[in-house]
Amino acid sequence: MGERSGVGLVELAILEALDSRRAWHNRRPVKCLKLLLALEDGIGLARGYTYQVLTDLALPWKIPIPLIEPQGNFGSRGSDPPASPYYTEARLSRAGHVALAAERGEIAPVPIGLINGNTHRQGTRPPFRPASVVDAIRQVLRRPRITSRQILDIVGPPDFMTGCTITGDLAGFVAGQRTELGLQARVTVTDAAHIDARTTGAAGRGHMLPRSLQRDPSRPFIVLDNFPPYVSTDDIAVSIDKRAKEYAWKARHPELAEQTGLPIKDLANLTARDDYWFLCIPEDGTPAEMLRDQLLRVHGVTDYISVGLPRPLATIIRTWTRTHQHEDIEASLTALGDAL
Amino acid sequence: MRSGLPVVVLAAAVLAAEQVSFLLVGSAALWLRGEQIAVGDVDVVIEPGEPNLFQLRGALLRLAIRPGEVPSVHRLRELSVTTAITSYGRVDCMLERGRRDWARLRRSAGYVTVADAPMLVASTADAWALRRLFGK
After folding, report:
1. Closest CA in chain A for residue B17
2. Are the Cβ atoms of A242 and B7 closer than 8 angstroms?
3. Interfacial residues of A (vs B; Cβ cutoff 8 Å)
4. Which residues have a Cβ under 8 Å from the Cβ of B78 and sit 6 or more positions away?
5. Which of A183, A262, A285, B63 has its CA 20 to 30 A from that of A67?
6. pLDDT digits (tens, 9 = 90+) for A77-127
């Protein structure tokens, strides 16, 4: 990875290629296909792979600091993939400029790699809130005797951008242990008034609400949103639907059927624009709280990822700061902050 | 059985209910054998033979979130491993291991019931040995 930004080498090659074509954040973007062909001809990066990396660099639900500004369809959190690179364009984001400037030594290093992590590409380093990491580094600069506990309090837990809840051994993770984290969607028991309010908002307009919602507004409903970032919302809908089905073995294994089945009357995907949410209606007689707990055990509603840092998090931040403290880190952090 | 059953183990129980002949190995097997281990996915060694591959394919079509990605039976005959993402989590079906070692692994395996579905679970020694073999 780039030593002064922490950005991966393929990512840096993409940023360099954009920069050399003057695809700057305030200029016209370049066609992705041209960029991919240039990278393939220049350094032998296969375009299919490069395009995946390129699109990831632009998606704000995958990395907290997007380094590219996309033009066109770069895919969604559902199952629809990015459009062919014939039809998409890209240019550097302001943060992309900062990363390149740091790599070229024009400004002091910036901790973009530490903030963005690599779990979006099945790596083990999760993303963190940019402002918190920047603040922690500033505090280490100002107060060299700051304790590890204080650094961790400032940085906070990993931040997966979608608002999903994180479960698991966070203490072990920040101590540098390899562990599994659960990323949980928000599953809320609510009522028809809440659904009405949400669907009359701009994001929900135009959706057909399930009939049972209209017929029986007094019953409790379950809303699922803030999904984990690395499972497509379409897959989550299928996952729930599969569990709601009846299978031939149900009569032979009633206990298994009870543990695996989901007593759902209706599931509606009310996603619109960038607001991803499902409405779930429990079967008659099913306590909504019970169904909520069962939903949290469905793959995708809870996604498990392996995480691990090479050293304790506080040590990483302290070491990074001390390694680069002879340079004007304060200025580069300000540049990064301005770019966000 | 221990409390706090990892959800993904239910995928193996469903495979058993679907009458697929397999043997549970990996972290799930070790967990069911009482070891303190994190269970991230389910690894199953599939009994070789045409009827069982048909049974496996049918079960995976019902279980997998993306049924279109389930290989055909003639591919299952050749593949070493096939993976399905299910609503319980990830299931790795070890086909080559079954072709090579089914009889040996079967001899030392025993039945464990999950919910009310009995399934064959590899012995602790075999499960650890396989994990070492795959460098886990």
Report:
1. A249
2. no
3. 179-180, 235, 238-240, 242-243, 247, 249, 252-256, 258-260, 297-300, 304, 306
4. none
5. A183
6. 887 889 999 999 999 999 999 999 999 999 999 999 999 999 998 899 999
